[in-house]
Amino acid sequence: MVTITRKRAAVANEAMGFFTDTTVCIGCKACEVACKNWNQLPSTHGGVSEMSGDSYDNTRKLDGTHWRHVKFIEQFDGPYNGRWLMMSDVCKHCVKAGCIEVCPTGAIIRTEFDTVVIQSDVCNGCRACIAGCPFGVIDMNMISGTAQKCTLCYDRMGVGLEPACSKACPTDSIQFGPISELRTRAQKRVDQLKAQGEMRARLYGDDPNGPLGGLNAFYLLVDNPEVYGLPANPQLPTRTLTKSGAMSAATAAVLGVLALVGIRKRRIDEKEGATIDV
Amino acid sequence: MGSNMAECHPVAFRWPMKAKLNGAKLIHVDPRFTRTSAVADLHVPIRAGSDIAFLGGLINYVINSQRWNTDPFFKEFVVNYTNAATIINDDFKDTEDLEGVFSGLKGFKEPDFWPENGNLGAYDNASWAYKRGPKGPGPATKDLIAKRAGPPFDDLVRSLKPGPAERDATLQNPHCAFQILKRHFSRYTPEMVEQVCGSPKEKFIKVAEALLENSGRDRTSAFAYAVAWTQHTYGVQMIGCCALLQLLLGNIGRPGAGVMALRGHAAIQGSTDVPTLYHSIHGYLNAPSALRPHETLRDYMAAETAPTSYYGNTPKFLVSYLKSMYGAAATAENDFGYDWHPKILGDHSHIAMFSAMGDGRVKGMCCVGQNPATSLNGQATRRALRQLDWLVVKDNWLTETATHWYLAPEVKNGEVKSADIKTEVFFFPSTQIAEYDGSYTNTQRMLQWHSFATKAPGDCRTDSWFYHNLAKRLRKAYATSTLPRDQGWKNLTWDFDPDPADPAYGTALYPGEISALKVLREINGYQTADPKQHLKGFGDLKDDGSTTCASWIYCGCYPAPDQNMTARREPDPPGVPGAHLKWGWAWPANRRVMYNRASADLKGNPWSERKRWVWWDPNFVNPPDPKTGKPVPHGKWVGYDTPDFAATKAPDAQPKPDGIGLDALSGAQPFIMRADGRGWLFVPAGLVDGPLPTHYEPHESPVQNLLYKQQSSPVHKVWSLGKPWNPIASVGDPKFPYVISTYRLTEHYLAGAMSRWLPWLAELMPELFIEIGKGLAQEKGIKNLDWVVVSSPRGHIRAKALVTDRIGVMKIAGKTIHHVGMPWHWGWMGLSTGDVVNDLTAWVGDPNVSIHEGKAFVCNVERA
């Protein structure tokens, strides 16, 4: 009698991802719990921890054991006068991913769903990706001893299930689907908000021609990205590769010349020294 | 209002957010700027406890507005579908006449046999009644009782019919309900609202205008409330006030309208339907009481039957219920065992029982699914627990209630010694919801069956196992008793064991477990002669014992052994109005919007195309009457929902002069559970604290009542009055200058047994805190995360400060009042621990339903 309707299984080669509409987020943290439940991630100090004092945020950041994190931003100008922004943050699954670039072991791969996954059994825990992520998403999971982050529920997607977080989101703030569909939906929502007078509504990371080739987890925001702790112009760690490469070459050349000069000078000095009486 | 829906009902909040995406306007009126306010179009601050002043202000604004007075819809709805036109007795006196109280106020004296009721006063409500013409001829009720008339009990019910109520459809008569309420609310001006509630006038007017704009033929508005409207000394009146406003705006019985009761937890609706509450038996029938004229079966029927509404069928509900209690032993000759049924002696609600426990009147307690050691005036509650001889705690964890005798703060600090506590404490490990079969009833009155997902670990048992086996042992213990009082136990039917030979009702999940489906069958009802013949609906019920049904309102949820309607999970397809009639089953009769006859006009046409829901189809060809075989005239109520009306009664049908039940109502009286078929603006009976909502101050308040000389409700309850364990602050007590409200967070659940032990939830809200405004923090030198001491006359606790602009300062009656708030989930057990916030609350409560006033009292805050 019970019918369970599954979302259609993701088709390989179609980019899949998240659109997070922060304007309907109610900060319930169901996404955080569903993520930990499905991925069996531990709690900080087994759940015996201290409150942060930063609004209702007590998990503080994305890291190796918090793959979803809800931010709470209180923007008030006097009692009751202001707004309370909430945003469920996650790995952005960048189309041009810094973590993949810097990973020396090839542990980080791009999947058939155009998502970015760290293979724990290949990761050697060198932490290069932690520094290489422009969003500070990745961190060590001290239990596995490897770098970890959201997999966009690669295991669920493989069997046609949507990721645990979007499944649990009661208000559909987190939406999962083909990126092309999500972009159309997101733009409509921006238009609706603007028509309702919310002129600050904007998308972040939806542009395939934008930074990092677009983000496969993109957001609808109603303020500057920095307000949400997002970089306005995220960059790849290799962004200055050419410049720094050229600089390195030039430096090497200058150093080389100076070295030659030095050697020659020493030889002359040695020669001369031999002839000088002290 | 009265709800923080996004935080406390996040799953249901999906729908307001969907509505918002479709263009609905969301307004949140609350003392705090919460996660609900964060996504609302408008947040209006309000001082906790002043909601009637706010709602009364809306009523006054609406009935004096141009829109309400010029759009004919409102008059048509109000004159015909409410009791606005009904004339009230000449000797009725309003709060306008008596400085804040109604006529009929008298004292209350605690009876010696049960001095735990707590009422400060009582009303004689005779003067609140409708003015009526002479009663029709016929035999007198008392003669029929003396003659032991019935079954059938139709004559008895008919004898109860009062004379016709007088009406003035022009609404001009000064004694009509509308004129009385118009005068009553005239002092609730926007300026007064600002003074009493601390809500800025311009924001209040925005709310009023939004409601007016979004009510009428084409549009409806809905209110959602939760325990922030119940936990007051006048909580029922707050909800009634909202219903009054919604009736005036034509927002009842229509799609997208109504007053939504968001329940305190998942199955609380079920606990009123198949009650764990003391004051009613199944299906909202009043519990037989020693204080009411309930001496015999017929006395009860005479006292409790409203003859001219669907409740005219009360004898059928009652007799079928008694058959479910006493089975074959219940016969017409012994009044179906009515005399065996226990009668209540007064208030046996939670606080009354703990007050009695504190007085040494209670020997033992089974505590199941509850953690009272952290509830309502915690120190007094724990003191009461220490007076018990025995205590059974059945829970998932060793809760504070299970450990109070060696870990409570008063034991740790040496005030109480464990060795001095005489109570023997038993602990039973309990299953969780995913470990057994059953149903729960949600806030929409919808039953949803759930199957077990996994077996419980170790020796954990279900609550049903516990009570099933306890009942079997008690029955054995009483089997040889010859005492008259034990006849109920001796004659009790108890057929819930699974039958291995008959798999239709399932097999036992655990050794000694019940068949959950057999319980559902008893609740649904069956033909007494053949329990396999389930009842199809409450229309099948009889008052002669031929039907057995525990709860008439659930009748039809399980119409055949292989048809469990509550297990259905078939949603409507997209693009249709979405009554979702095949998803679970909602009482009564799978209706999703109650009183939905009101969604059509007098002639039975939808008020508008946009708000079409249930309507009269005059051309519908009806089959012949199945009982008589006679042809039935064309015409039927049809629509998206199950019509909440007699199915083939035409809109122009007139009441039958001799009719009882629905026959006494016309085809244009939608409120079929009310004796006059109309929505009650003025409540002539049923409430103990007044026929119209009136603003009173909370029992503990920093200010005088600005609206009346009467400070607080004259009839509310204070249990253990004057006892040292329930001290109360006086009005404006400078030692406790701040208003405090207690509340819940999304991350935790109630007293914490289902959340504080779970690492994933505990880390999200790891510690107890108090939310205080920046102004108060500055005044007191308190910084964010500082430890503070919060005190009330009942006790003091420690918490960390969360300093924020989401709560703050208000101007009330010209005084600056700071408002603070604390979530109350914590205790000393579990992973996330903290002081017991309910150590601050008082044993003070509502006179109708005995709930405590946890949402508005006073406190002090100091740096620790």
| Residue fraction in strands of chain A | 15-25%
N→C terminal distance of chain B: 34 Å
What's the CATH C level of the largest domain in chain A? Alpha Beta
Task: From the alpha carbons, calculate the radius of gyration of chain A and give it in angstroms.
Answer: 25 Å
Report helical residue fraction of chain B: 10-25%
- What's the mean pLDDT score of chain A? 90
Low-confidence stretches of chain A: 1-10, 273-278
The CATH superfamily name of the domain at 5-102 and 167-261 in chain B is Dimethylsulfoxide Reductase, domain 2
Q: Hey, roughly how much beta strand do the residues of chain B contain? A: 5-15%
Largest interface, with Cβ-Cβ < 8 Å?
Answer: A-B, 46 and 51 residues
Please state how the strands of the largest beta sheet of chain B are arranged side by side.
22-24-23-28-21-26-25
Shape of chain A: globular
Largest sheet data of chain A: 4 strands, mixed
Number of strands of chain A: 10
- Spatial gap, N to C terminus of chain A: 108 Å
The CATH topology of the largest domain in chain A turns out to be Alpha-Beta Plaits
The unreliable regions of chain B are none
Computed structural class of chain A: alpha+beta
In words, what does this structure look like?
The complex is a heterodimer of chains A (278) and B (864). Chain A has helices at residues 30-39, 98-102, 128-132, 154-158, 164-168, 179-195, 241-275, and strands spanning 16-21, 68-76, 82-90, 108-110, 116-118, 139-141, 146-148, 174-178, 202-204, 217-221. With 278 residues, chain A is α+β, with helices and mostly antiparallel strands. Chain A folds into 2 domains: 18-228, Alpha-Beta Plaits (2-Layer Sandwich), CATH 3.30.70.20; 240-278. In chain A, strand 2 (68-76) and strand 3 form a beta hairpin. Chain A is globular and about 80 Å long. The model of chain A is unreliable at 1-10 and 273-278 (pLDDT under 50). With 864 residues, chain B is α/β, with parallel strands linked by helices. Among the domains of chain B are: 5-102 and 167-261, Dimethylsulfoxide Reductase, domain 2; 717-863, Barwin-like endoglucanases. Chain B is 23% helix and 13% strand. Chain B has 24 helices and 28 strands. The two termini of chain B are 34 Å apart. At the A-B interface, helix 1 and strand 3 of A face helix 2, helix 3, helix 23 and strand 24 of B.
